[in-house]
């Protein structure tokens, strides 16, 4: 590899290969589907391909409440397949006919601590105020469903 251009090409190819193989965590929602109708609760299911530091969480909000999110229970994730599922709650009776945005992403350990602290505070106070969406280690996958019953 005497040609400097060849060295540069080799460097960029290796960076691309290793960057792709060890890149960002990936998550997706497989159920429910975008546009589905739901009741008071539903089990949200999905897939993931995450590193050792990734933590999958589902958050949701009424679509009209931009920037205000409610973290749901930590999903069960099968480490062998990456498949996960989480029980999600869609507000109260007053939220019938509302569109809800369900979001899934992976988070750092620090962001997960923030979510766990949110849940601990809620259990103690019986009050679960919305929070901002924590910093992610993956793209955020979102779907919209409509609550039709409670």
Q: What is shown here, in short?
A:
With 150 residues, the chain is of the alpha+beta class. It has helices at 4-21, 109-125; strands at 26-31, 37-38, 41-49, 55-62, 70-71, 76-77, 84-89, 99-107, 141-147. It has a single domain (25-147), classed as Immunoglobulin-like.
Describe the secondary-structure layout.
Layout: H1 4-21, E1 26-31, E2 37-38, E3 41-49, E4 55-62, E5 70-71, E6 76-77, E7 84-89, E8 99-107, H2 109-125, E9 141-147
Parallel strand pairs: 2-9
Antiparallel strand pairs: 1-3, 3-7, 4-5, 4-8, 6-7, 8-9
Signal peptide: 1-23
Keywords: Signal
Characterise this structure.
This protein has 150 residues and is of the alpha+beta class. It has a single domain (25-147), classed as Immunoglobulin-like (Sandwich). The protein has 2 helices and 9 strands. A 5-stranded mixed sheet has the order 2-9-8-4-5. The protein has a 4-stranded antiparallel sheet with strand order 1-3-7-6, with no helix packed on it.
Helix content: 10-25%
The CATH architecture can be given as: Sandwich
Q: How many distinct helices?
A: 2
Low-confidence stretches: 11-22
Biggest sheet details: 5 strands, mixed
Keywords: Signal
Signal peptide: 1-23
Q: What tags apply to this protein structure?
A:
150 residues; alpha+beta; Immunoglobulin-like; 5-stranded mixed beta sheet; 4-stranded antiparallel beta sheet
């Amino acid at each position: 590899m005497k040609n400097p251009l060849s060295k540069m090409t080799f460097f960029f190819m290796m960076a691309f290969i290793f960057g792709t193989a060890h890149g960002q965590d990936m998550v997706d929602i497989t159920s429910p589907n975008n546009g589905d109708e739901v009741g008071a609760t539903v089990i949200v299911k999905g897939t993931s391909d995450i590193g050792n530091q990734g933590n999958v969480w589902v958050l949701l909000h009424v679509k009209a409440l931009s920037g205000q999110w409610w973290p749901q229970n930590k999903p069960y994730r099968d480490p062998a397949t990456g498949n996960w599922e989480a029980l999600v709650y869609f507000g109260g009776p007053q939220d019938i006919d509302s569109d809800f945005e369900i979001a899934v992403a992976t988070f750092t350990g620090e962001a997960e601590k923030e979510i766990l602290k949110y849940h601990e505070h809620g259990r103690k106070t019986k009050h679960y105020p919305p929070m901002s969406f924590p910093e992610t280690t993956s793209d955020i996958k979102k779907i919209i469903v409509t609550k039709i019953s409670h």
